[in-house]
Design a protein that fits this description.
Layout (H helix, E strand, L loop, with lengths): L11 E2 L2 E2 L7 H9 L5 E2 L5 E5 L3 H13 L3 E5 L2 H11 L3 E5 L7 H8 L6 E7 L3 H9 L4 E5 L3 H12 L12 E3 L2 E4 L4 E4 L2 E3 L3 H12 L5 E2 H8 L10 H13 L9 E4 L3 E4 L4
Parallel strand pairs: 4-5, 4-6, 6-7, 7-8
Antiparallel strand pairs: 1-2, 3-5, 9-10, 10-11, 11-12, 13-15, 14-15
Helix pairs in contact: 2-6, 3-4, 7-9
Length: 270
């Protein structure tokens, strides 16, 4: 959590400061009595915001609510998992540093029952946490301190991504790999492989043009959208996760080949 110099107990979002004196307890008590702890009732797709700093979570929630989203709040790991099970969000904004258990464990547990998008909030320079978070199923990350409008733009970009193929798309067979755009399923040598939404979308993009070398930017434009901004090496992390789940080897690839100086290609002889 980032704090402004000269303040005490005051979280900062891109230079903004906010008091933290019991900021959400009245609303939370009312929501608990209604059976939905942390729920803020507004129309629209449901998003779960998880941060141990209640004031920061409230700022993020208020910006999302203005955009028409329904927002649920959680301030620790166990509550986040329980609330995700109850409310079935389409997207989770997830801080890594949480009491109970951290955001990495939240993401790991979330992936056992939900395919919601996960947008991580990370501290500047925590590269290892970013890599681990993406490898356990997060889709993207935003570095603190951030502007709330930046976060909302990233959320909207993620939710605009296409989620399914058309009925006319036949399964794609590349050696022992089968990618079905309609059912969004993958198998290797007839054994099913569980992928996150983003991992599937990366694989689908590569399988759409077998043997063609695609740059990181091309993959980002197809999967995250042309308006996405951030570190393009996010693609590398998802490729590593894909290879691990497919049983692929970067040194002797069956399915995903690294094209030096360019990006990645589907290995059509897999």
């Amino acid at each position: 959590m980032t704090r402004m110099p000269g303040t005490r107990g005051t979280p900062s979002v891109a230079g903004q400061s906010h008091p933290v004196a019991h900021p959400l307890r009245d609303e939370e008590r009312a929501a608990v009595s209604a059976g939905y702890p942390g729920r803020v009732h507004t129309p629209g797709p449901r998003i779960l915001v998880v941060d141990d700093e209640a004031a920061l979570a409230k700022v993020v929630a208020s910006y999302l609510e203005r955009e028409g989203f329904e927002v649920a709040l959680a301030h620790d790991g166990p509550t986040a998992v329980a609330l995700a099970r109850r409310t079935d969000p389409v997207l989770v904004v997830l801080d890594l540093m949480l009491p109970g258990f951290d955001g990495i464990e939240v993401c790991r547990q979330l992936r056992t029952f939900s395919d919601a998008y996960v947008l991580m909030l990370t501290a500047r320079g925590d590269e290892v946490d970013k890599v681990i978070g993406l490898s356990v199923g997060a889709d993207d990350y935003v570095v603190k301190p951030f502007g709330p409008r930046e976060l909302v733009a990233r959320v909207r970009a993620m939710l605009r991504r296409p989620r399914s193929g058309t009925a006319s798309e036949a399964p794609r067979r590349i050696g022992g790999l089968v990618v079905d755009p309609v059912s969004r399923t993958v198998s290797v040598d007839d054994a099913p492989v569980a992928l996150t939404r983003t991992e599937f979308d990366v694989l689908l993009t590569l399988s759409d043009r077998p043997s063609a070398a695609l740059s990181r930017r091309q993959i980002i434009d197809e999967v995250w959208g042309p308006n996405w901004f951030g570190d393009e090496h996010i693609v590398d992390v998802h490729i590593r996760a894909l290879r691990r789940k497919l049983g692929d080897d970067a040194a002797a690839p069956r399915f995903v080949r690294t094209v030096r100086g360019v990006g990645y290609a589907m290995e059509a002889t897999g």
